[in-house]
Design a protein that fits this description.
Elements lengths: L16 H11 L1 H5 L3 H17 L9 E5 L6 H4 L4 E2 L2 E2 L1 E2 L10 E2 L9 E5 L12 H10 L3 E2 L2 H10 L9 E3 L3 E2 L10 E7 L14 E7 L7 E3 L1 E2 L1 E3 L2
Length: about 230
């Protein structure tokens, strides 16, 4: 395995559940997902009540409110990302981005759910997806889905930094013959070169990397668990 010893990065606390819900409503995510704003706010309120019943632990930790990927595709969420005033985008050679589905990750069967224990995975920079996946599972973690990575950045755009971006290998594309596509999704920052276009320099970019390739500037985002309120 690659020898990696980056400086530890602690993610700032996520906003309260109600603030996260308001943010999604402000961006129109609830409309894209066909979820009434009242239901989204109600879910956030129930999550807070559940947290209070357990001593408030959830509300003060890194718990993300997410919409199920079946309700709103990554291609619809990507343009809602912002960095330096520029919207996010999907690379042109990933037109099938919405076919990347959860793989080896159990997602609650509900329109809304909670993702706990977020980590950007900086310590796995310069590992390939093939190397990183068993390391994550060995630590009791599961890789983030692409949609979860986008949700995280909608709430905390500052978690996308140059040379500290991340892959979301919980989403994979299975071909018609049952074999997994060798591409794995990632979110990073465009340099405005090639087909991205100069105007997209510094914009959030959803692209892909090969399953067996390493990249010094890409970690592997993961979570401890997923569930309801």
């Amino acid at each position: 395995m690659p020898d990696t010893s980056p400086t530890a990065v602690t993610a700032p606390p996520l906003p309260p559940f109600a603030t996260q819900a308001d943010r999604l409503i402000e961006l129109g995510v609830h409309e894209l997902a066909g979820i009434p704003a009242a239901d989204l706010r109600g879910f956030a309120e129930a999550a807070l009540r559940g947290s209070s019943a357990r001593g408030g632990g959830l509300e003060s930790s890194d718990v993300l409110l997410a919409v199920h990927p079946d309700r709103v595709p990554a291609s619809a969420l990507a343009p809602l990302l912002r960095r330096e005033g520029k919207p996010g985008f999907v690379v042109v050679d990933m037109a099938d981005v919405d076919r990347f589905a959860p793989c080896g990750v159990e997602v609650p069967d509900s329109p809304l759910y909670l993702v706990t224990g977020l980590d950007r995975g900086d310590h796995l920079a310069n590992w390939s997806p093939e190397e990183a996946l068993p390391a994550l599972t060995g630590d009791g973690r599961t890789p983030l889905l692409l949609s979860e990575g986008i949700h995280w950045l909608l709430q905390q755009p500052e978690m996308l930094e140059r040379n500290r971006c991340f892959m979301t290998i919980g989403s994979r594309l299975r071909k018609a013959n049952g074999v997994l596509d060798s591409r794995t999704p990632a979110i990073w920052i465009s340099n405005g070169t090639g087909r991205d276009g100069r105007d997209r320099r510094d914009a959030p970019k959803i692209g892909w990397c090969w399953w067996g390739n390493r990249h010094t500037w890409l970690g592997f985002a993961s979570a401890v668990g997923r569930g309801g309120q």
